[in-house]
User: Which sequence fits this backbone?
């Protein structure tokens, strides 16, 4: 299996500058060197170039809808090509709105994919429920067939047809869920493991139940969408929406080790690293090298040698 790295320097899914520098920060933390230790080829396809569209008026309270929609349309094609060429694809964000294009492009090649969303947040607001309007908090709502009767036609997103069923998605790490999102999670019966569930069950049991839920009936490709803010802010401070009480280093690495061991990882997003938000250079370095660690672990680096 070869690996393709795709940089997506994009920030318009939210309002804080700097997350577009995430791909560079993760590369500067030694991603390519780290992956060259593996015995399979690694192709770095560099960064996509996103155009900022002029006259991109708000839609309801959603900023930059056309710019975000177009960026994801471009990303979708790039991910589809990489997966179609037989690569395991690592998409470096950029904000989490990029998962719209990443998952859609993956689904073009693997329509039976399942999605594991590791995040402090559910990112399942609709434009009607979102408290911020920011599209990085709405990504999953654009993917789910079950939500389409609740979604307005957002300008810039006419290219995407929702394809994912609620049963094909599992969340790990939730600890900051909006009221509207909680209603959606419950109404659709989406399987999720909050930080409280992890405290009660332990990460080993959470992964057992997650992988059984998604794979017991049928083995299929896994899309892992990893928001660095799933980790505790003490480990990943350089990110836009930090929330206390997150994953420990060992819990996060256990998640990616277990996913690697399925042999089914097909695309991994690593998003929301914002190098301008670290209080010190050390804080930026810690966040960026943590991103490298979880990628290496998802691709087979083990703790036991
Ligand atoms: N649900 C949110 C949204 O804006 O939709 C609201 N939340 C921030 C808000 C701050 C005050 C206390 C309640 N939470 C951020 C989240 C999106 C995170 C996007 B991700 O990609 O970082 O996960
Ligand atoms: Mn997120
Ligand atoms: Mn988040």
Assistant:
């Amino acid at each position: 299996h070869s690996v393709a790295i795709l940089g997506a320097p994009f920030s318009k899914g939210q309002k804080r500058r700097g997350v577009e520098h995430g791909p560079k920060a993760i590369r500067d933390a030694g991603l390519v060197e780290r992956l060259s230790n593996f015995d399979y080829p690694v192709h770095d396809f560099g960064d996509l170039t996103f155009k900022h569209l002029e006259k991109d008026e708000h839609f309801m309270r959603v900023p930059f809808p056309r710019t975000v929609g177009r960026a994801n349309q471009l990303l979708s094609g790039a991910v589809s090509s990489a997966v179609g060429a037989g690569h395991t694809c690592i998409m470096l964000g950029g904000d989490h709105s990029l998962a719209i294009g990443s998952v859609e492009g993956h689904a073009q090649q693997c329509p039976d994919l399942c999605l594991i969303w590791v995040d402090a947040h559910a990112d399942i607001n609709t434009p009607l429920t979102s408290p911020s309007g920011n599209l990085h908090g709405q990504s999953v709502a654009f993917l789910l067939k079950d939500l389409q009767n609740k979604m307005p036609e957002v300008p810039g997103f006419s290219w995407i047809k929702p394809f994912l069923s609620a049963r094909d998605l599992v969340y790990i790490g939730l600890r900051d869920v909006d009221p509207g999102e909680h209603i959606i999670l419950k109404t659709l019966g989406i399987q999720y493991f909050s930080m409280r569930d992890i405290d009660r069950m332990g990460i080993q049991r959470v992964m057992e139940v997650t992988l059984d839920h998604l794979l017991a009936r049928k083995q299929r490709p896994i899309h892992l969408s990893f928001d660095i803010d799933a980790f505790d802010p003490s480990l990943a401070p350089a990110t836009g929406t930090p929330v206390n009480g997150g994953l420990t280093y060992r819990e996060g690495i256990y998640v990616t080790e277990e996913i690697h061991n399925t042999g089914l990882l097909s695309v991994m997003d690593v998003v929301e690293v914002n190098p301008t938000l670290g209080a010190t250079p050390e804080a930026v370095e810690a966040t960026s090298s943590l991103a490298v660690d979880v990628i290496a672990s998802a691709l087979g680096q083990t703790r036991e040698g």
Notes: The beta strands are 2-7, 42-47, 87-92, 114-118, 169-174, 191-194, 222-227, 265-271. The mean pLDDT is 98. The first helix runs from residue 22 to 28.
